[in-house]
Amino acid sequence: MRKAFTLIELLVVIALIGILSTLVIANLNSARERSRDAQRKSDLRNIQTALRLYYNDTGSYPITSAFPTGGNPWTVGMTTYMSTFPKDPLSPTQDYRYVQTDSDTYTLDACLENKSDDKCVTDASFCPTSECKYTVKP
């Protein structure tokens, strides 16, 4: 009657645990990327809502140079459009890009991590690491 595992049995179990943990970590990282991308899209929708409020008050969208940066409030005169302007969830130093094309239109961009996202547009100039840009317009 045996009372212990053989060396081969232990090596097989350790190899299986290693393979399973690798698969779990890979799936977890993918889920984290999708979660951060969902946060970026939500941030752009919130900014878009603030831009609509600004447009309703002033009749035009703000000029590109007057757009706030992440972490700061967006206040014009006595009106606060956003108490805290959102930051990228992974890279807080990377601001979302806003460009006013004329008084009635703009583009608002964020870099996504998940290149297989159905809204991903390849743009290495704005998104050098992921090359995946997400854009909203009015």
Overall description:
This protein is an alpha+beta fold and 138 residues long. The protein has a single domain (7-136), classed as Glycoprotein, Type 4 Pilin (2-Layer Sandwich). Helices cover 38% and strands 20% of the residues. The strands form 2 sheets. Strands 3-4-6-5 form a 4-stranded antiparallel beta sheet, covered by helices on one side. A hairpin with a 2-residue loop joins β1 (74-76) and β2. The mean pLDDT is 90.
Give me the number of helical elements: 1
Shape call: elongated
Give the % helix.
25-40%
Number of domains as seen in the coordinates? 1
Largest sheet: spatial strand order = 3-4-6-5
Assembly type: single chain
CATH class: Alpha Beta
**Succession of helices and strands:** HEEEEEE
Which residues sit in consecutive blocks of at least 5 with pLDDT less than 50?
A: none
Structural class: alpha+beta
Give the strand content.
Answer: 15-25%
Rg, nearest Å: 23 Å
List the helices and strands and how they pair.
Elements: H1 7-58, E1 74-76, E2 79-82, E3 97-102, E4 105-111, E5 121-122, E6 132-136
Short description:
The chain has 138 residues and is α+β, with helices and mostly antiparallel strands. The protein has one domain: Glycoprotein, Type 4 Pilin (2-Layer Sandwich), CATH 3.30.700.
Write a concise keyword list for the protein shown above:
elongated, alpha+beta, 6 strands, Glycoprotein, Type 4 Pilin, 138 residues, two-stranded antiparallel ribbon, four-stranded antiparallel sheet
